[in-house]
Amino acid sequence: MRVGSLLMTLVGLGVAGGAVFIARTQLETTSDATTSGIVEVVAAAEDIPFGSAIESHMLTSIRWPSESVPKGVFTEFETLLPRAGGEPRRAKRALAQGELLLVSKVSGYGEKVTIVQTLGENNRAMAINVDAGSGVGGFVTPGDFVDVLLTQGRGENLSAVTVLQNIRIVGVDQTSDEQVDQPGIARTVTVEVTPEQGQKLALAQQAGKLSLSLRSLDTLEDKPLAAVRLTDIMVERSPVPDDTPRPVIRVRRAATSVEEVQVR
């Protein structure tokens, strides 16, 4: 009996151990399958201003689905940081905390970072002279989008026309940092334009006075705008409807007909 009981106990232990082994194997397999689609990528641990040197304390790693990893992403700190005594990489644009670091967003080792590296492919940077009035009271900052208006002529021939729409501000005076949010009166604003827009802008600056119109973030569509002349707005009557009651007089027509007439 004792031998039989001992055998039954050993068999039970063997079955239990086998079940535990199988369960553990399945869990490990499932875990491997779950993590195999995840990779570690490098992101900004804090906001990194435009032109700043990339340093180790500015970086962190986050888990990212391997099937949606953007092109040019960094997966190791070592590929971003210089060797001891070497020149650093720099941010080619302002990077927000948590933003992935891509090859297109950082310079090469020791590479100089200028406003040119913020321009789109085949675009140009062009300066416009402004003052407090034409520069939207100093509320235009790098990263904003504006329309450019031209005013020209004299007297009754004075006219205004929108020559460029949805133009990005890349610099205000000597500042190109898009994180600047303090308004200031500028003397020069630098805008990003295509070669064709640059030609129009150069001609417009010689033809009259340029003004900037700050665009809303909700602007969805640009439409061609006709020029407006001074004579178009110099009207005798206000364009706003006048709802003031006007006096009414009674006028007798013939012997018995009476008509009410509003006095203009």
UniProtKB/TrEMBL annotation:
Residues 39-107 form the SAF domain. SMART domains: SAF. It comes from the Bacteria. Signal peptide: none annotated. NCBIfam families: pilus_cpaB. This is Flp pilus assembly protein CpaB. The lineage of its organism: Bacteria, Pseudomonadati, Pseudomonadota, Alphaproteobacteria, Rhodobacterales. The gene is cpaB.
